[in-house]
Amino acid sequence: MAMSTEDLKAAILDKALKSPKAQLYIKDFYACDPDSSPRAIKNAANEMVREGKLTFWSSGSTTMYAAKGRAKNEEGDQGVN
Amino acid sequence: MPKHATPLLDQLESGPWPSFVSDMKRQAEKKPEVWDILGQLELSYHDRITHWKHGGIVGVFGYGGGIVGRYSDVPKQFPGVEHFHTIRVNQPSSKYYSTENLRAICNLWEKWGSGMTNMHGSTGDIILLGTKTENLEPFFWDLTHELGQDLGGSGSNLRSPACCLGQSRCEWACYDTQEACHQLTVKYQDELHRPAFPYKFKFKFSGCPNDCVAAIARSDFAVIGTWKDDIRIDQAAVKEYIAGNYPSNGGAHSGRDWGKFDIKKEVIDLCPTQCMWMEGGELKIDNSECTRCMHCINVMPRALRPGKEMGATVCMGAKAPILEGAQFATLIIPFVKVTKENEFQDLVDLIEKAWDWWMEVGKNRERIGEAMQRVGLPAFLEIMDVKPMPQHVREPRSNPYVFWKEEEVEGGWERDIKEFRRRHAM
User: Fold this and answer.
1) Residue A38 to residue B359, Cβ atoms within 8 A
2) What's the pLDDT tens digit per position in B33-69?
């Protein structure tokens, strides 16, 4: 059974805070609850950005998530088309 | 007065063509930070390496796309471009503007940014080059509240959908590309502004197989207009072309004398499937062999038109060469009706089926075309609930081995082969 949204958000935050990598792909959060759909996990993570708990980190071509304050502010890659 | 010496850039102004260096020098008179761009670019030409760093946490509140952070790696030398973020603004369908709107965008960018633009980016967005972090929110407020426009996509989002001129100007458009582009842009606002996928995803809508937005080469989901029935022929107009009374290609090549129009040389012999011929003074087409290349229609637009039963072909998986090389889109649905009457539901069903699968199995930074390639076309067709059909075959099989599933083989993998051979001689 999939976690409730609140439980899912707590698991996502825990992962974002404890992961050795500061910036995580959305797929890295799928393991927080294998029973939740990728769409539900994406929606929860995006909601957490609006709540100020997570922040987007974008290279221009790819977007990652980080716990507030953990993301570095520059460099990466940028693709075309 | 130039702030930095730029001998390498100055050389670019010496040719007969218009130079971006001259444009930037003119802009620098109004926006002094542009001198620093010129200075940094000169340094990059000298060092043969970029001095831009990009990526970061910049953005506007609630949006996960539309702004690409950009920073100088030599900010002490060029303080005017310490931050120089790029903003993507979603272009209007088919890029129709009024001059009033263009002026308003430019004025807004003079107010909040460098004033330099890139019309347009390769996905179609209006690209506004260079602003500071503190200007992002006020710019976004003005863009949305004064101009009624929105940011485009970037990062792992749906990118700004793009379409050709479609039925607004083109007699060959087989569906309303602008309506499809607009409706799906509105429907997928969340995916456009907030990351949802393993990587970027692009829709492009072309009204006919001429594919003026290059959907087949540049989009993950290409909707390309086509028709099911026969090409419409006006035999009287064919005769006028042959007589030289109508210019071929709508007069597009009339700047030079190419000699008398030769229907055999210029149309019939160039048909890739050789499905055209003249008979009794009339042009004949074996429509079952036509691959919709559009060549004959392009050459004789007053004599030939697409058929009346119109819709679109859906191809998926194109991408540029970042990983594994460039690839064209693969045909998935040969013909689908594209109509606003059912709110483009046939397209929506396909898009969401593909997204659900790709979000689940796509690797980080893997385009859907690469995921398709990884699992193979037969498996992908199964995911999309599409039965394999002749149109999916790119070329006749050169490998004689055919792989079957166990349930498709009588007796499965465990059957008694000796018993089988007793009844079926080799």
Assistant:
1) yes
2) 999 999 999 999 999 999 998 878 888 988 989 999 9
Of B50, B54, B87, B49, nearest in space to B69 by CA: B54
* B196–A71 CB contact, under 8 Å: no
Chain A contact set for B50 (CB, 8 A): none
Could you tell me if B155 lies within 8 Å of chain A, comparing CB atoms? yes
For chain A, the distance separating the N- and C-terminal CA atoms, rounded to the nearest angstrom, is 39
Q: Which CATH architecture best describes the domain B7-145?
A: 2-Layer Sandwich (3.30)
Sign of the CA dihedral running B356, B357, B363, B367:
negative
Q: Indicate yes or no: CB of B155 within 8 angstroms of CB of A63.
A: yes
Across the interface, do B56 and A57 touch by the CB < 8 Å criterion? yes
According to CATH, what is the number of the domain B162-228+310-392?
A: 3.30.413.10
User: Which one of 3.30.70.20, 3.90.1860.10, 3.40.50.300, 3.40.50.720 gives the CATH number of domain B232-305?
Assistant: 3.30.70.20
pLDDT in tens, B144-177: 999 999 999 999 999 999 999 999 999 999 999 9
The structure tokens 């910036």 sit at: A23
pLDDT at B62: 85
B199·A61 Cβ contact <8 A: yes
Is there a domain that residue A46 lies in? yes
Which residues does chain A have within 8 Å of residue B363's beta carbon, measured at their own beta carbons?
27
> Which of the residues in chain B have pLDDT under 50?
none
Instruction: Name B7's Cβ contacts closer than 8 Å, sequence gap at least 6.
Output: B42
Q: Is B364 on the interface with A (CB under 8 A)?
A: yes
Tell me whether residue A51 is in a domain.
yes
**Above 90 in pLDDT, residue A7?**
yes
What's the pTM?
Answer: 0.89
Nearest alpha-carbon partner for B369 in B418, B308, B315, B412: B315
CA distance B361 to B76: 45
Say what the pLDDT of residue A77 is: 41
What's the DSSP call for residue B256? S
**In B218-371, beta strands by DSSP E:** 221-227, 232-233, 276-279, 282-285, 304-305, 310-316, 330-336
CB-nearest partner of B198 from A27, A55, A56: A27
Instruction: Report yes or no on A72 lying in a domain.
Output: no
State whether residue B384 sits within 8 Å of chain A by CB: no
The count of structural domains within chain A is 1
Tell whether B320 lies on the interface with A, counting CB pairs under 8 A: yes
Query: Do the Cβ atoms of B200 and A61 come within 8 Å?
Result: yes
Residue range of the domain that includes A52 = 5-67
B189 at interface of A, judged by CB pairs closer than 8 A: no
CATH classification of the domain holding A37: 1.10.10.10
> Structural domain boundaries of chain B?
7-145, 162-228+310-392, 232-305
Chain A, 29 to 58: residues with Cβ < 8 Å from chain B are 38-39, 42, 46, 49-50, 55-58
ipTM attached to this prediction: 0.85
**Any B CB within 8 A of A21 CB:** no
A35 located within any domain: yes
% of chain A with per-residue pLDDT over 70: 89
